[in-house]
Every structure is written in structure tokens, then in C-alpha cells.
Amino acid sequence: MKTKFALTITLFTLAACGGGGGSDNAATNTPPATNTPPTAVTTPATSPPPATTPPPKPVIGEALPSLASPQPGSTAAVGNGVEGIWSNASSFFPEIGFIDSQNNLSAININSSAVPKHLFGVISTTSSGWSLISGLETSNFLFSPTTSGSGTYTAKQTFAGSYMTASANPNNFSWTYDPANALSVNQSSVGGTWSKSGDSLVIGSDGTFTGTFLNCNVSGTLLLASPGTSKNLYQMILTAAAGNTNACQIPAGLRFTGNTGITFVPLIGNNGYIRSIPFLLKSDGNTGTLVGQLNKQ
């Protein structure tokens, strides 16, 4: 998901200005000319002006965090190798997965067909493998319990495998460790206004928020999944208010929960990145899901 920014750049040229010299034609008593050969006048060679380097393109985004040099306290610096944000931008539907320190897994757009699928589950891990203890897939507004799931991982590098439901073929996926894991955060890191395509949340430094989503007035919290740490993973709770108009698509009072984190969206033109919050939420009682992505303003 990319956001295009209109950027106006003023191009200008530096012109070198030179000064001109004057000459005085004074009358003097000069002896008559003789047959002395004329003296050749040599004009000194001039060097071309040095080439000018165009000014650097202004950067309006921020640099991507470095997994090679993760920020202190970040998931990449202190995490267990499985927890964190995982992604696959090369799939037909860009995929992103969240695994918290309690091994709760949620994933957006697992693409085993032309229809994106979402997964909620709990995994167990060994030194290099994982298995799905329990899970629930959502696709086309239908919920299907998983029957099995397993795979392999390389700590802080790759996470791959597949899972099954009773009515479908294996759903395969392959993720890489996202650079957002190298970002060190605190609770106030999510403070501010986040919006996109008419949806907007205003989040306080304590993680409480109000705003609009899917034509509904909503409120809730966005709190660190591991309180007291600097790991970039948050738990989101969202509820729609009563008294919304008929355009609202979320049942009033129904609570939705799920994990999310701050990710980075590239700006058009290699001009840095902006922060974004993609989220996948599941309702109490497993009656619905909410999927969205909001960018920092």
C-alpha cells in the first residue's frame, strides 16, 4: 500500500558573473616606428568553469530502520527470534503477520488463491520449527477452524509453512523478518493522527483513541503488547459507538481485538518512508473481522 505525495521542487541555476577590465588611451611622444618585428600577443588559456552538482533531492520521509544495527530495546535487538512483524511484499496480495511474545499469530492476506485470507492462531515453537496449536481462518466473511499447520523458521530472518482447514487445500506462505522490528518504541510512539481514505484515528500518548472507521464513530486503545518494553508490537481494541448512522458497518458495542505494529510505507520517488499501522481485528465471539491500514499524518 503506497501513498503518493505531491512534491514541488524548484530548480535553479547558479551563474558565474565575471568583472570587466578598462583601458586608458593616453597620448605619448613615441619615436617613429622601426622595422622591429612585431611582438606576438598571447592570450592566456582559460579553464572551463567547474561543473556544478545539482542540489540533493529533499527527503520528506524517514530512513528505514536497520536490521543490521537495530535500535536498543527493539524486537530485533532483544526479541526471541520468532516474535515480531513478518511480511511478504512480493505476493499478489501483500502479506503481513504479527507474532507476539505469547506466540499469538495473526496474518493479513495469506494468498493461496485469488481471494485474500486472514489467519488467527496460537503456535508452539522448537529451535527451528513451529506448529499451529489452534487457529481460525477468515475468507469471504466465512470463519473456518484450522485442522493443522506447521513449518520452519530461521530466527529473525524467515518464517514459512502452511496450514489446513477442513474445506480447503493447504495454504502456503513464506515471510521475511520486517525492518520495522529494528524500531525501538514506547507507548507514545503511536500518539497523533493516523488516517487514510476517509478513516482517521486520533491517538493519545496513553494509547486511547477516538475517530472514524468504516463510517462509524469508534473508540478504543492501542497499547504495547509487552508493557514496559520497547518492542514494536501493540494490541488494539476497537468498539463502535451507539447512535451511528445507517452507513456505519460495525455493530455498536461489539468489541474487536488484535495485534498490530508500526510499519513503514515507501514514498513515491525513493523519497524515504512514512509510518503506518496495518491491523487485523477479530470480534468477540468470532462473528466478524476488521482490516485496515492508517498512515501517520
Question: What key phrases describe this protein's structure?
Answer:
disordered N terminus, eight-stranded antiparallel beta barrel, single chain, mainly beta, 297 residues, eight-stranded antiparallel β-barrel, 17 strands, globular
* Cα shape: globular
Structural class: mainly beta
Record the strand order, biggest sheet.
Answer: 1-2-3-4-5-6-7-8
Count the beta strands: 17
Gyration radius, rounded: 31 Å
Q: Uncertain spans, ≥5 residues at pLDDT below 50?
A: 1-43
End-to-end separation = 16 Å
Structural notes for this entry:
There is one protein chain. The protein is mostly beta strands. The chain has one helix spanning 75-78; strands at 84-88, 95-99, 104-110, 117-125, 129-139, 142-154, 158-165, 171-177, 192-196, 199-203, 208-213, 216-224, 234-240, 255-260, 263-266, 273-283, 289-296.
Produce a short descriptive summary.
With 297 residues, the protein is mostly beta strands. It is built from 1 helix and 17 strands.
Topology:
Blueprint: H1 75-78, E1 84-88, E2 95-99, E3 104-110, E4 117-125, E5 129-139, E6 142-154, E7 158-165, E8 171-177, E9 192-196, E10 199-203, E11 208-213, E12 216-224, E13 234-240, E14 255-260, E15 263-266, E16 273-283, E17 289-296
Antiparallel strand pairs: 1-2, 1-8, 2-3, 3-4, 4-5, 5-6, 6-7, 7-8, 9-10, 9-17, 10-11, 11-12, 12-13, 13-14, 14-16, 15-16, 16-17
